[in-house]
Fold this sequence. Notes:
Blueprint: E1 7-8, E2 11-12, H1 14-21, E3 26-30, H2 41-46, E4 51-56, H3 63-75, E5 81-84, H4 92-96, E6 99-105, H5 114-124, E7 125-134, E8 139-142, E9 145-148, E10 155-156, H6 162-174, E11 191-192, E12 195-196, E13 203-204, H7 207-216, E14 220-226, E15 232-238
Organism: Desulfarculus baarsii (strain ATCC 33931 / DSM 2075 / LMG 7858 / VKM B-1802 / 2st14)
Protein name: Methyltransferase type 11
Amino acid sequence: MDQISQTGRAGVHKRPILRKIVRGKSFVDVGGLWKTLGEMVTTAVEGGASRVAMADIQAPGNEWWVKFEAHCAEKGVSGCEMIHVDICAPEGPSKLGKFDVVHCSGIMYHVPDLFHFLGNLVECANEYLMLGSVVMPDSIENEFGRLDFPEDAAYLAPLLSSSNAKIVSAYLDSINMKAAGLNSPASRGFFVNGRPIFGPWWWLFSGTFMSRLIHLVGMEVVEEGPTPDGRGYIVVARH
């Protein structure tokens, strides 16, 4: 069993974990294109990955792909595969293919269908899945009231009652985080032509709920915990 733990008082640091598990393995970063700030491809290369890829729903050749290519060149990374795919679509796994290590962060709360999203990621992961997401604290209490986020429930953000929406929005304001559809406008709404869209926040859940969901889809959680800034949660799971 790989010794991968990087949990401490400061939270889970996923880049050291990736460097430990990725040597000699294939790696894909799903949805990591946005602004290149959270991309993990260059970290996988540092860790000795045998093959690396970036997969994203962004249209081929758009500004974020161009910026990612420039970012890789700046870091001295070459040979990264670039895959245009909607990981939530039924054909997502066949278009993406299999990788030993699959990383996906910052996407989970934006997807309408959590089950297809997670099921497709699991299908593409030969060995490891590294999943990161913004999460809610176990409980929020402020001037608008109290709202709990238990391990066995998630809130559908667009259907929050007005009183609960005020509680969540005040919390997000307090940590300087904007959430489309909550404390920031969802410019396109939640549905276009009768179909749910990505972009707004669909789900609000705790880290323990997220971990239990990974167990539900059939993987063993080998490392988990809050991110260093306390806003997110990381789960590393293995088949």
